[in-house]
Amino acid sequence: SKLYITNGTFADVIVVVARTSGQPGRLRGLSVLVVDGDSPRLTRRPMAKVGMHPSELAELHFDGCPVPGDRLVGDAEDGFRQCLSV
After folding, report:
1. What residues have CB less than 8 Å from 85, skipping those under 6 apart?
2. Do the strands 72-73 and 30-36 form a parallel or antiparallel pair, or are they unpaired?
3. pTM of whole model > 0.85?
4. Would the CA dihedral through 50, 62, 28, 81 be positive or negative?
5. Comparing C-alpha atoms, which of 17, 2, 22, 23 is closest to residue 67?
6. C-alpha span between 75 and 86 (Å, rounded)
7. Does the pLDDT of residue 25 top 80, yes or no?
8. SS3 state at 80
9. What phi-psi label fits residue 17: left (phi over 0), alpha (psi between -120 and 50 degrees) or beta?
10. DSSP string across 15-73
């Protein structure tokens, strides 16, 4: 699950940093994945906000959501370094 995703209610493409291995440490074992917005088992729940109403917030659930191997960005388990370079 991911919380506070801007425009998550209608995005066609979702870039996710997710733990893909059980390596010890909070920053290890992360990978960057591209998930299609119409993927099966992806659910979106709009979140209420106090301000900034022009942009929508959502909670995304990827409960068993299949992500093909060709949707991996860069090297597996190199997501933390990739995020720092952005």
Report:
1. none
2. antiparallel
3. no
4. negative
5. 17
6. 15
7. no
8. helix
9. beta
10. EEEEE-S--SSTTSSEEEEEEETT-TTEEEEEE--SS-TTS-EEEEEETT----GGGEE
